[in-house]
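Entry: DegT/DnrJ/EryC1/StrS aminotransferase
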Amino acid sequence: MAKLAVMGGTPVREKNRLFPAYNPIGEEEKTAVARVMDSGALSKYIGCWDPQFYGGPEVQAFEKEWAAKFGVKHAVAMNSATSGLIAAVGALGIEPGDEVIVSPYSMCISATAPLFYGAVPVFADVEPEYFCLDPKSIETVITPRTKAIIIVDLLGQSHDVDAISVIAKKHGLKVIADTAQAPSAIYKDKFAGTLSDIGIFSLNFHKHIHTGEGCLAVTNDDVLAERMQLIRNHAEAVVEDKGVANVVNMVGYNFRLTEIQAAIGREQLKKLDAFVGERLKNVAYIGERSQDMPGFRPTKSRPGTKHVYYMHAFLYDEKIAGVPRSTFFNALKAELAPSKLQEEEGVLMGEGYVKPIYLMPIFQKQIAFGSRGYPFRSEFYTGTPRYEKGMCPVVERLNEKELITHDLMRPGMAQEDLDDVIDAFHKVYEHREELL
Ligand SMILES: Cc1ncc(COP(=O)(O)O)c(C=O)c1O
């Protein structure tokens, strides 16, 4: 096989042969947007107790359709999963002095949402094979202050719902599932995100289906649904007239999704299964042809679940492969090309996923709201926050040494595109010793 690109050889995929764009938006979405534009009502919300407190016809139809598809009682549309997670924490009644167990391996809001209500995030470690919060690690960080767990269905795969439910029940904890990356993932015949007190889906530009920005928060609990609707839309101006007695955390935001976004979302939802099906097909193709590289292997999915592959991950073992991960990874990237519409991001591959969240400055400095350390230090909080390097060894090992992720299995990749990805894996693997 030819010389490695990183050593001056010809890459498997020349940089000017971009991989196909992932663009799930089509004519149906354009027609839906035109329908809303023609109506002139781009958002119909009113921030007081009025029939329009719940938004306009597109938002309400989208919520009904999402709830029906996922088999839940309520879906509350919001303008981002960031907003959705904040609203979920508020709806649960989390307050200053409480602790919420969070994942260090996620997009940061999965861990920072409790801060908005004065609660302290407590990090547990993740599972080495599936990257969701590890139930065993969760048990070691529960204290009398723990009120909830925010668990992330990372990279498209459900967390261990049964194990987490047992812990939550035993300790009287609420569970928010951050299912931003896993719409229509399955855990034992049910949709991920629907098996917790609240589930949060994201519709941002990078997700399986999107509305530019957006979110659906789902729950089977009438009170939690109402509290999220209130936080979404100026709760403080609504509670009195609506007759809501519990005003804890009833300070609202404007977390509202527009009619245009909802109209797009309704069309996107119809396409979700087909897009997921294509991801599964592409991952299966890459996975089957990548089993012969000891030390570099596609990750497994949890038994009894359906993974929907927001990203596809490999586990790298430097001792077996014989070269450091970064050397291998840089050689791999040099063999491949960026994707259309995302040229500036380079080849869509990552060493690890994100830096463990507790290593971010807000946790290292313990400065979030104001300059005096609130909520890490306050008259309400009786614990001692821990955010030191080394506290979650599995996530640090995954991120520093073991994990390689890529997006080159998204819908739109033709077989010859997937073959280039697979050829690049093999080329670098077979020539890896030349890299030393
Ligand atoms: C796991 C996870 N949670 C939450 C979010 C936040 O989503 P949004 O961009 O819709 O606010 C993201 C976004 O990437 C995510 O991946």
